[in-house]
Amino acid sequence: MTNTQVTLAQIDNYGPWTVTPNPRKEVDLQTLQSRLYADLSQLVGMHGGYVFFTRFDNMVAITNGLDLEDHARIQESIGNRYPVTLSFGIGTSTSPRDALVDATALLQEAGSAQDAERAEVLAGQTTEPTPAEDDDVHLAHFDVNDATGEYTDELDAYSTFIHIEQAYASLMRYLHDAHDGLAFFVGGDNVIAVVPDLERAAYEDAIRHVREDVDMDLKVGVGSGVTAQDAGMAAKHALEICREDGTHVEGL
Ligand SMILES: Nc1nc2c(ncn2[C@@H]2O[C@H](COP(=O)(O)OP(=O)(O)OP(=O)(O)O)[C@@H](O)[C@H]2O)c(=O)[nH]1
Q1: 4-124 sits in which CATH class?
Q2: Which of 13-22, 89-98, 136-145, 227-236 has the lowest mean pLDDT?
Q3: Which of 86, 89, 148, 222 could pair with 103 as two cysteines, CB 3.0-4.6 Å apart?
């Protein structure tokens, strides 16, 4: 059985901090959030994990390959560099959706996101890597077909943004509800989804759903590995095969 390890990173008591003693300048909050994401991405990435920025005050990481000590060291490093701290909840499951549900519940049990007493919680257990023949992480790298020709070079930038966001919203809801997957926008016209071990038909369904829902054509490269980094690189190579061959689903 393969297990995805998902870590929910939540900034402790961030809401009150943003308005104490008075509302802080938005430009400073935006700078803090993007730097914190960049640092967390690098710290987790050094161990082969991926972090998705989601709402910035809550970030979701795929942390197969990181144990509790690795998580604690990252919390310490962030605490030393920033005026805020991070709590981590860790969940593992064959279903990425369930892993994040469990990770969230652990943090909620430890206290509210706006509880001044709750700081640097590290809750949950990490998973041992399964034998090499069982890759734990499955990633699907989705990309809009010819986004540059269809949208970026044709429409104004805001209209393109609306189209891309609508496709993202359609895909994230479908993968979550139908296949227990968690899809994250990563920039440009790209969405990376952490998924269970799905069949080709599931990807064909998802692509058909987005086409029917918002009239946008996607392709997807799928990859597996013992870490997110391994799975993600395999998915990128599979996506390149889609580009070369004009296909919609590769890597399975
Ligand atoms: N995060 C991330 N962004 C990417 C990646 N590849 C492309 N992008 C983004 O996607 C944008 C569009 O690039 P492409 O997807 O290569 O271009 P396209 O016009 O859709 O062409 P095709 O993908 O060949 O259909 C780029 O400007 C980047 O912002 C990737 O691997 N990761």
Answers
A1: alpha beta
A2: 13-22
A3: 89
